[in-house]
Amino acid sequence: MPGVSADSADPAAPVVPPAAILVVALALLDDRGRVCLQQRPYDKQHGGLWEFPGGKVEPGEHPEAALRREIDEELGVVVAQDDLSPCGFAASPGLVILLYACRRWRGEVACLEGESLGWFDPAAVPQLAMPPLDYPLAAQLQNLLATGAI
Q1: Which stretches make up the Nudix hydrolase domain (predicted)?
Q2: Mind listing the pLDDT tens digit for each residue in 101-139?
Q3: What span, in angstroms and rounded, lies between the C-alpha atoms of 132 and 119?
Q4: CB proximity list for 119: less than 8 A, separation 6 or greater
């Protein structure tokens, strides 16, 4: 507002945080029921930790389109939008992660951006070293798999 400096702003006014970053992630499930996780590059935040592959949604991009793009970039496989099932979310201040599950894809899964890939029994995933928001995602996935919802 013209003429209003930070010093003269109403101290009782709420502070509006910046918009949250939206991230999409994928629980890629093979025919044995294992989930594919990637190990984050050692030179990045949370380096060396295991995570669901995915990435940031760009401005104006639909979350499912972003996920399909990220999975092609990171794993070298193509997933169809109709094969994506929303299955969880996690949030912290400034960050929201949407998790999708997928059981079908085209191509051979490869580690194109992370340190390594692994296929894990979903029940074992919570014992892995992961970024904090991946733990609730893993629990939501495990619950849905246990009930046969996905």
Answers
A1: 14-145
A2: 999 999 999 999 989 999 999 999 999 999 999 999 999
A3: 20
A4: 30, 32, 34, 35, 36
Question: What confidence tens digit (pLDDT) does each residue in 21-45 have?
Answer: 999 999 999 999 999 999 999 888 8
* Non-local CB neighbours of 115 within 8 Å, separated by 6+ positions: 38, 39, 40, 41, 42, 48
**Vertex 98 angle, CA 94 and 100, to 5°:** 165
Measured on CA atoms in the order 46, 48, 50, 54, is the torsion positive or negative?
positive
Give 18-147's CATH code, choosing from 3.30.110.30, 3.30.70.20, 3.90.190.20, 3.90.79.10: 3.90.79.10
Contact status, residue 70 vs residue 53, Cβ threshold 8 Å? yes
DSSP structure class, residue 132:
T
Give the distance between the most distant pair of CA atoms in the chain: 65
Residue for token digits 């702003």? 9
CA 4, CA 9: separation in Å to the nearest integer? 6
Q: How far apart, in whole angstroms, are the C-alpha atoms of residue 67 and residue 87?
A: 14
CA distance 87 to 110: 23
Global pTM reads: 0.86
